[in-house]
């Protein structure tokens, strides 16, 4: 498998904290960085929907880490690449040797 892991992606996790008024606020906390490769999977226009723009689905490949490791991406987390945000939807090993992980992620692009 020939990969070019040249994109530095910051893995983030959503955290809730009290807002002081009986509710909570959400923020994203950086967990670390991974070098990865991004490949476009699908793209579609959301014209006519409540949130106009485009939704793109990406396959993000990175070096594997063991299940349960804090550095291993999970659905519900996200990758950031500068101002771009990729919501992680699924994570799986790429091949039987489990040297690489593939994350299916979605990027929403505002119109």
Layout of helices and strands, plus pairs?
Layout: E1 7-18, E2 24-45, E3 53-63, E4 78-81, E5 84-93, E6 100-110
Antiparallel strand pairs: 1-2, 1-4, 2-3, 3-6, 4-5, 5-6
Describe it:
By secondary structure, this protein is an all-beta fold. The protein has one domain: Bacteriophage SPP1 head-tail adaptor protein (Thrombin, subunit H), CATH 2.40.10.270. Helix content is 0%, strand content 63%. It has strands spanning 7-18, 24-45, 53-63, 78-81, 84-93, 100-110. The protein has a six-stranded antiparallel β-barrel. The mean pLDDT is 89.
What is the H-and-E element order? EEEEEE
Strand portion, in percent? Answer: over 45%
Q: How many distinct helices?
A: 0
* Adjacency order of strands in the biggest sheet: 1-2-3-6-5-4
Distance between the termini: 36 Å
Tell me the Rg in angstroms: 16 Å
CATH architecture: Beta Barrel
CATH homologous superfamily placement: Bacteriophage SPP1 head-tail adaptor protein
Integer tally of domains: 1
Poorly predicted ranges (pLDDT <50, ≥5 residues)?
none
Number of strands: 6
Q: CATH first level: which class?
A: Mainly Beta
Judged by helices, strands and strand pairing, the structural class is mainly beta
CATH topology: Thrombin, subunit H
Instruction: Please summarize the sheet with the most strands.
Output: 6 strands, antiparallel, barrel
Mean pLDDT: 89
What is the helix content? under 10%
Give the overall form: globular
């Amino acid at each position: 498998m020939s990969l070019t892991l040249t994109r530095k992606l910051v893995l983030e996790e959503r955290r809730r904290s009290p807002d002081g008024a009986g509710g909570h606020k959400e923020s994203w906390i950086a967990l670390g960085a991974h070098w990865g490769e991004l490949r476009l999977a699908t793209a579609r226009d959301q014209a006519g929907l409540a949130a106009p723009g485009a939704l793109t689905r990406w396959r993000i490949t990175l070096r594997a880490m063991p299940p349960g490791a804090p550095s291993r991406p999970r659905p519900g987390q996200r990758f950031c690449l500068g101002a771009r945000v990729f919501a992680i939807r699924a994570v799986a090993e790429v091949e039987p040797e489990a040297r690489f992980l593939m994350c299916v992620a979605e990027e929403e692009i505002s119109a």
